[in-house]
């Protein structure tokens, strides 16, 4: 027996809008990571008789060096003043890594060697006045039978012992061969090479965004998974009659951060009132014995510091060498309540700070690891008690590995208006 299905009325899908309209309200939204299209600007380099235009460049670029992301194409045009005399136009992209250490020596490796013939008079006839070109950066290179991702452009010299010098550069060479028209010329053809450095950026992003509200207190209960806690203990000297202090260092749970964005953090010191007073140098000082002179001592304040450290590790001729430099400094703000509380019988008290740490403006290269060269970063918090020589508390420093990338999780131009 067949049963007739009920009739359904067609109803069109409701219209949606990215922003609330009159009478609407936003319940919840998530920052969006939009896809970035190629830049539309150009950079021009002029030589005598030759003009090169590099396309897909940022309009706001202040370095004057063509910059490209990973797996990008070097696109542009070559303008020639005397094209009828041109026989060949060749393009070469070369990349080199140079590593030097005062302890281990130095090595140099070619990681990119791409060549293209843009124009050949013998095959194509007369050369036009404008010759276009496009050449892609390779994604990998080979080092000792293993493939490595192409490293970003990076140059640094770290003085001291050992002295380290690292250079990873990419250069575009344009070679133009012309026929000599002069009767007195000794050679039939002349060849000139025009070189231009190119900047290669890693073009990487964090896997997840940093929570928008930088206040730790307001977001801990609402989103505890957004924070990662590191617990260390400020030790005491041997036979010191003072209790150690517990330190809670809290940072965003994602270990990948953008170079240009601040990294929020929270610090809490927990311990007895006497221990915290010794850490700050505010503990009462015992009076000297009768008849003795009061020793003259210079008072040193406690130091709470958060900074970003970059370690550059090289391997040359089978020997390792590394140096560590400061890549950014943090700013701290105390959070009430302070050390002194109304409850005089309280055994344990706490002191809190919050702040942000940001990389320096001259730190433009992300973390990376390739053959014989590793550039890795850490966020470090250091605690030094007041009057460290006489204090029963010992200084402590903890390093937490992080990864720095060049791009943020969202782009300001592509973000939802509510996210800006």
Describe this structure in words.
With 420 residues, this protein is mostly beta strands. The chain folds into two domains: 41-200, Sandwich (Immunoglobulin-like); 216-282 and 299-410, Sandwich (Immunoglobulin-like). Helices cover 4% and strands 48% of the residues. The chain has helices at residues 121-124, 216-220, 273-280; strands at residues 41-47, 50-57, 67-68, 73-80, 86-101, 105-120, 130-136, 140-142, 147-149, 154-158, 164-179, 189-200, 227-234, 245-252, 256-258, 263-272, 303-316, 319-335, 348-359, 368-370, 373-384, 396-405. The strands form four sheets. Strands 13, 14, 15, 16, 17, 18, 19, 20, 21 and 22 form a ten-stranded mixed beta sheet that branches. A hairpin with a 2-residue loop joins strand 17 and strand 18.
| CATH architecture field of the largest domain | Sandwich
* Helical content (DSSP H or I, runs of 4+): under 10%
Outline type:
flat
Broad structural category: mainly beta
Structure in a nutshell:
By secondary structure, the protein is mainly beta.
